[in-house]
Amino acid sequence: MSALRRALPRLSGACRSARNQQQWAPVRHFSSSPITRANWGFVGLGQMGYPMARNLRAKVPATDSITVYDVNESATRQFAEEASSAGAGTRVTVAKSLQDVSRVSDTVITMLPQPKHVQAVYQEFIAGGLEDARPRLFIDCSTIDVKTSLEVGSSIRVLGHEFVDAPVSGGVVGASAATLTFMLGASDSIVGKAQPILEMMGKRVIHMGEPGTGIVGKLANNYLLAMSNVATAEAMGFGIKLGLDAKKLASLINCSTGKCWPSEVNNPVPGVVESAPSSREYQGGFGVSLMSKDLKLAIAAAELADAKLVLAEPARKLYEDAEAHEDCKGRDFSVVYKYLQLASK
Ligand code: NAD
Fold it and tell me: What is the DSSP string of 293-321?
C-alpha cells in the first residue's frame, strides 16, 4: 500500500473502487487524422490558463474544436477574438456555462486558483450529467490540496471518466513559451494519453505515480522554494548589513554550496539580477499570495502524513505578514526581502 493511500485510507478506498468500475475506452485526443475530430474544453483563462490554452489551440489539428469558459468574460472574449484573428484553424467556442464545456468535450483541462474553485467547477460538471457512454479525460493543473484533488478525482472516476492531477512549475513565462514542467499523478494506463496532451503546453512531464502524487510533488517543491527564498533574503540581508557588496555576495553564494534558484535567478535584492522581479519593484513573477497559499497547502499535506516541518510556521507567518503589508502585497514572493528590511528598521 502506498504512503498516500495509508495517509488517506477512506479516500483511497473510493479511488480504488472507482478505478475498478471504470471502463475506459480510448478516444482520439490528438492525431493527424482529418476524419475524427476531438473536442477540447479549457476552464480558467487566467495568468497561467490563458497562455496554456493558446498553446493548445495552436497545436491541436485544425479540425478539432476548443470550448473555453471563465467567470471573467473579458478573458474568454479576448481568447475567441485572438483565435479568430489568427485565421482559419481550430474552432473556438465560448461556453455559456461549465456544463456546456463538460457536455461537449472529450478532454477538459482546468487551471483554477484554489481548492474551492476546483470543487465548485467539478460539481457543476457532474451536475450537468456525465453519464452518457462517452468517456472523458479531466486534467486538473491547478495547485490545490491533496485531499480535494483525490475527492474530486473519485467523484469523476465513479462515473466512468478519468481524472488526473497535473500541477505545473515554470510560471507565466513557462506557460507562454510552452516550457512548463508538469507533475503528473495518474494511473499507469492513463499516462500515455495524458502525456502528449501536456506536452503541447510544456516541455517536461514527470509521472510521479498514482492520482494525487502530482500535487504532492508540486507542494514538496514549493515548500522548498518558500524556504530557500526566505533563507536567501535573510543571508543576503545580514551580509549586506555587515558591509558586503550585494553582487559580490550573490556571486560567492552562486559558486558555493548555498546556491539555489532564489540566489541565482530570482535574487530578492534589487539590482543583483537585472531580470529578476526585485530589480523592477518586485512587479510580475510569482505573487506573494500564491506562495503563501502553496505553503499552507504543503503544511496541510505534511500533516496528512504526520511529517514534522520545523521551518514551516515562522515562514508561513512571514509570507502572511508580507502579503498584508501595503508596500509588499501583490508583488513577487521575493518581496519578503523588502518586508524584512522594513520590519527591522
Ligand atoms: P489566475 O487567478 O490568474 O487565474 C484563474 C482563472 O480562473 C481566472 O481567470 C478566474 O476568473 C478563473 N476562475 C475562477 N473561478 C472560476 C470558476 N468557478 N469557473 C471558471 N473560471 C474561474 O491564477 P493563475 O496565476 O493562472 O493560477 C492558476 C493556478 O496555477 C493556481 O492554482 C496557481 O497556484 C497555479 N500556479 C500559478 C503560477 C503563476 O506563476 N501564476 C505558477 C504555477 C502554478
Answer: HHHHHHHHHHHHTT---SSHHHHHHHHHH
What ligand 1 atom has the least distance to the C-alpha of 44?
7
| 18, pLDDT greater than 50 | no
pTM surpassing 0.85? Answer: yes
Superfamily of domain 217-343: N-(1-d-carboxylethyl)-l-norvaline Dehydrogenase; domain 2 (1.10.1040.10)
Range(s) within the chain of domains with CATH label 3.40.50.720: 2-210
Q: Given the DSSP bridges, would you call strands 180-185 and 168-169 parallel, antiparallel or unpaired?
A: antiparallel
Q: For 69-79, how does the pLDDT look when each residue is reduced to its tens digit (9 = 90+)? A: 999 999 999 99
Q: Which CATH superfamily is domain 2-210 in?
A: NAD(P)-binding Rossmann-like Domain (3.40.50.720)
Arithmetic mean of pLDDT, 245-256: 98
Q: Are 161 and 139 in contact (CB under 8 A)?
A: no
What's the CA-to-centroid distance between 255 and ligand 1, angstroms?
Answer: 36
| 31: confidence class by pLDDT, cuts 50, 70, 90 | very low
Residue nearest to atom 4 of ligand 1 (CA): 46
**From ligand 1's centre to the CA of 208, what distance in Å?**
23
